[in-house]
């Protein structure tokens, strides 16, 4: 009975994250022979293959929303409200291909994303123009994502990285960022911290960012039976945000509650996900 529960839960999670073509994509990504961008011992493989990514992904979306131009592009073109699961599945497939797939497949995935970015242009409600292929905006999205994934992994990962491994993870992600068009991405934690600080004067919680936070935290397209499970992941996604990002989004910090309830729940949930999705 426990084996059946594990299989059901693991398959359900996999289908949600990977989509209807997930099994075929997984076989292609992992079984196709050929050189890879990252070898088996690289930290990017450890981080992106861990259950902590469920928390890191939520945190990354909240943090990325704080750049008005990036958020305007997401709100107008990503379809995150109309097709949230499709967006998640496309993103997870891109991460899987660039992290584990052959170099040829990784480059093809990057080229497809760059072609999409070239077409995404528009104006914010205030009349500011944006272009998804702008290296400056790409740099923000990359820095926010890398910081969020690493923070979540270091707190909830099965095998957190040491200091050298953390720097190596940032360097690994820079390989993908450069391919996407980011100019001089950070290659260690210190450079990543400086890059995030450099963006801070541009950040604020726009109406679109507030709407995205409400959608992610309060109105997710999740069946009622799974809401408590998701709420635990979302609470931990908020908990790993930098303090200044939480302040901008007006997400309160409750140290006692987080230490006593939120963090233990995050550890328990990631343990269950890891158990269910292990081969």
UniProtKB/TrEMBL annotation:
Ubl conjugation among keywords: no
Record key words, sorted: Oxidoreductase
EC number: 1.-.-.-
InterPro entries cross-referenced by the UniProt entry: MPAB/Lcp_cat_dom
Gene Ontology MF terms in the entry: oxidoreductase activity
Pfam families: MPAB_Lcp_cat
UniProt domain ER-bound oxygenase mpaB/mpaB'/Rubber oxygenase catalytic: residue ranges: 45-275
EC category: oxidoreductase
Presence of keyword Oxidoreductase: yes
PANTHER family the record matches: BLR2777 PROTEIN (PTHR36151), ER-BOUND OXYGENASE MPAB_MPAB'_RUBBER OXYGENASE CATALYTIC DOMAIN-CONTAINING PROTEIN (PTHR36151:SF3)
Protein name according to UniProt: Oxygenase MpaB family protein
Organism the protein comes from: Streptomyces plicatus
